[in-house]
Specification:
This protein is mainly alpha-helical. It has helices spanning 3-25, 32-56, 60-90.
């Protein structure tokens, strides 16, 4: 990887991290559940990409970074589904009928 492409990749990463933080921090609490579902879909896509990167076998560094990406994306997907399920259970009706 050339010096220019590394600088460009770091610039894109820093910009994406800053923009992502700004977008997520300004979401009202009412929209968190739908946003979480969309985020889970995006994390699923990044999980597939990280599996491909980890298994490509280009170099030891790319394999290690791919593995770290697989772990992070998997944690994000599983945690997102757990939180979404918990939030959706809060809105379910409970049966309060008395049985005689």
């Amino acid at each position: 990887m050339s010096h220019e492409s590394l600088i460009s990749a770091l610039y894109v990463f820093a910009l994406a991290a800053f923009l992502g933080y700004q977008v997520i921090s300004r979401v009202p609490p009412l929209l968190h559940t739908p946003l979480m579902s969309a985020t889970n879909a995006i994390s699923g896509i990044s999980l597939v990409g990280s599996i491909v990167t980890a298994g490509a076998g280009h170099s030891t560094t790319s394999t290690i970074l791919g593995f770290v990406a697989v772990v992070c994306a998997s944690t994000n997907v599983v945690g997102g589904f757990v939180i979404t399920d918990r939030m959706l259970r809060m809105f379910k009706r409970r049966d309060v009928t008395k049985k005689d």
